[in-house]
Amino acid sequence: MSRLGNLGARLYNGEVGYDFVGKRKIWYGLSILITITAIVGLAVRGLVMGIEFEGGAVFTTAKTGVSVAQVQEDAEKASGHEAIVQELGNGGMRIQISGLDTDTANPVKDELAKDLGVAPDDITSELVGPSWGEQIANKAWTGLAIFMVLVVIYLAIAFEWRMALAALIALVHDLTITVGVYALVGFEVTPGTVIGLLTILGYSLYDTVVVFDGLKEGSKDITKQTRWTYSEIANRSLNGTLVRSINTTVVALLPVAGLLFIGGGVLGAGMLNDISLSLFVGLAAGAYSSIFIATPLVADLKERDPQMKALKKRVLAKRAAAAAKGEWPDSDDTDGSVGSGERQDRAVDDAAPAGAVVGQPRGRSGGRGKPSGKRR
């Protein structure tokens, strides 16, 4: 078994782990900082809306020896409007100019042909009305609202309302960061961007639902034991799926990164930029939120429940009593009785406060071939 596979098995069995839930205030603070940065970028710089949303003309030229900066200057001079110029893979140029109609597009085309030193027939033009982009945007918002409602209803039925609320917050977190990055880097918002944003919603929920499923199973009949608090069980579930989350995210990011940096950056395919940037940022933000936001939020909300508060008090009281006696309460006992197999090598860990990495128990044998200590 590879080292990564061995680590995944140890995480799943609870032999090792990181206290994600216990350090949740750090992740909350980091997420708030990133989200504020995204919102400020959106407010200050705004989104660069594509011509599909604003209307105008798109001119595509044959291969020219003129630089992008010079073409942009010529296009803005000829039209009197701001122009967006992209170099295509074949050496040609794609020039977008908002605010043009049929009467003004042809003179601009002739002027561009003259400035670039090409024949007017070597430049193709296409007019786009703003109503088409507006329809796409409205349908996208409608689809997003329906998706959010269905997700909340499904998670509330399949799991519970706290998990539905945490998943919804994580989704909003991911969308806000993605849109903020678009504003900060100045990428155009096109129908491809909308497709990318709607696509990342499913990816964002995937890892979150996997962790929630493990948490639901692990917390079944939780009040009948006095071994672990809810936060510790949540942490165990999160660590158990950690390697899987990392693997699926990396595998998904690699082809998207190829589209963004090779297809869009090197080859100059504009549409690939629009889709791949939203996917790249959304996938990364979704993996982050499923690990550092969604599950800790569920633990926070759940620990407010009176039953969970009472359980935490019982767990802490049992640990304090066991630590005073130098004993370790057996993990399989639900009545507070103390086993005899793993007391010595675990007594110190058992005295740790709730939420510490004590939430990651060793395997049955403790790694030393010892019996579990369960009474028969």
Overview of this protein structure:
With 376 residues, the protein is of the alpha+beta class. The protein folds into 2 domains: 213 residues, Up-down Bundle (Multidrug efflux transporter AcrB transmembrane fold); 73 residues, Alpha-Beta Plaits (2-Layer Sandwich). Helix content is 64%, strand content 7%. The strands form 2 sheets. It has a 4-stranded antiparallel beta sheet with strand order 3-4-2-5. Strands 1-6 form a two-stranded parallel sheet. A hairpin with a 5-residue loop joins strand 3 and strand 4. Helix 2 runs antiparallel to helix 11, helix 6 packs antiparallel against helix 7 and helix 9 packs antiparallel against helix 11. The longest helix has 33 residues.
Task: Map the helices and strands.
Blueprint: H1 3-13, H2 24-44, E1 48-49, H3 51-54, E2 56-61, H4 68-79, E3 83-87, E4 93-98, H5 102-116, E5 123-128, H6 130-158, H7 161-185, E6 188-189, H8 191-218, H9 230-240, H10 242-266, H11 270-302, H12 306-325, H13 343-350
Helix pairs in contact: 1-9, 2-7, 2-11, 4-5, 6-7, 6-8, 7-8, 7-11, 8-9, 8-11, 9-11, 10-11
